[in-house]
Amino acid sequence: MNLALPTDAAIRFEKKIDPSLAEKSMVRVIEILEHISEGELEGICDQYPKKAKPWSVKLDLDYVGKLLGEDISAKRSKEILSLLGMKVNPVKSG
To answer: Model's pTM, two decimal places?
Structure first.
């Protein structure tokens, strides 16, 4: 009987989740473990076959405003995206 339930790995692959999140998560887990155990890590070894290239997304503020039903200024958008850890490179529309 096939239930067609996707695996966790299949969902990650389908959504193209950034593989660098694993490294960020590992660092955070280590911080927590060091704090709880009051120990110190000597080093990290990560077998990473090939680092993923960073990718970019063009964001149309007019579209965002229509989608949200509220206009958000370029300054505020940059602020929000920066707080989420994203690098923002403003491009003039033309």
So the answer is: 0.49
Ordered by start, the domain boundaries in the chain are: 9-45, 55-89
Q: Is the separation of the CB atoms in 20 and 28 below 8 Å?
A: no
Model confidence pLDDT, tens digit, residues 32-86:
988 898 878 787 777 777 777 777 888 888 999 999 999 999 899 999 999 988 8
Q: Which helix (H) or strand (E) holds 29?
A: helix 20-37
User: Maximum distance among all alpha carbons in the chain?
Assistant: 56
Distance CA 45, CA 24 (A): 14
The token pair that represents 91 in the structure block: 């491009």
> What whole-number distance in Å separates Cα of residue 70 and Cα of residue 26?
37
How many other C-beta atoms can be found within 10 angstroms of the C-beta atom of residue 46?
A: 7
